[in-house]
Structure formats: structure tokens, C-alpha cells
């Protein structure tokens, strides 16, 4: 995965907004709520931390390319960090990011979801 492809994908998700914060990380939000944070590690490898479901947490925390997201998971949040890329393909990662967007969007109030065009 590279940053350009990642950002283009996130930009394509409905009502998705982008800011750069926390040391030049790409932070993507829906309705003002963060669903994924990405950047380049010191070793030059792309990394992304994203919200997951309870089931996603159980599966991904033991995946060879993933780990509980530093700082976020230690606070009891269900966030995973993709940090290696040896076993997981780009399309699988993008599916997980799409799920993170959906999870966060579904947690918004119905009024907010309608305002953002996420509901009819």
C-alpha cells in the first residue's frame, strides 16, 4: 500500500474528510469522528490504524501484519494497526478501512447520517 492509493480510496468514501495531524499523519473522519489514521513508519513502511468490530478485533489482533493499535487499543478501544504488509494484500486492507468507515458512520446519530447523505 502506498499513501497516494490509500488517500484516494478514503477520499472516495461517502462524507469522508481529511486532516493532517499528529506528526504529519493522514487522519480520515466521517461526521467528525476518526475512522483511520495512517502514515509512514521510521522504516519507510506504510502503517494504518483503524476502527474494527468486536469480531474484527478477535481475528485481526493475531494477524501477522496487524497488532492492537498503539495508544488506542491500550485505552480499551477496538482499533487495529496494520504495520507490516507481508501477508495482507492491499485490497484486503482497503476492505477493512471501508468497514471502519461504516462502523464509525453507523455510530453517528440518524440526524447526522441524514445530513451527511449517508441515509435516505
Structure description:
The protein is α+β, with helices and mostly antiparallel strands and 120 residues long. It has one domain: Alpha-Beta Complex (Aspartate Aminotransferase, domain 1), CATH 3.90.1150. It is 33% helix and 28% strand. The protein has helices at residues 3-12, 54-60, 90-106, 110-115, and strands spanning 16-21, 25-30, 33-40, 46-51, 66-68, 79-82. It has a 6-stranded antiparallel beta sheet, with helices on one face. It starts with a helix and ends in a 5-residue tail after the last helix.
What keywords describe this structure?
alpha+beta; six-stranded antiparallel beta sheet; 28% strand; Aspartate Aminotransferase, domain 1; 6 strands; 120 residues; 33% helix
Q: What order do the SSEs take from the amino end to the carboxyl end, as H and E?
A: HEEEEHEEHH
Strand ordering within the main sheet = 1-2-3-4-6-5
As a percent range, the share of strand residues is: 25-35%
The CATH architecture classification is Alpha-Beta Complex
Structural class, from helix and strand content?
alpha+beta
| CATH fold description | Aspartate Aminotransferase, domain 1
Total strand count, please?
Answer: 6
Instruction: Report the radius of gyration as a whole number of Å.
Output: 14 Å
- What is the CATH class? Alpha Beta
What is the average per-residue confidence, as pLDDT, rounded to a whole number? 94
Shape: globular
List segments where confidence is low: pLDDT < 50 over at least 5 consecutive residues. Answer: none
Terminus-to-terminus distance: 33 Å
Biggest sheet statistics: 6 strands, antiparallel
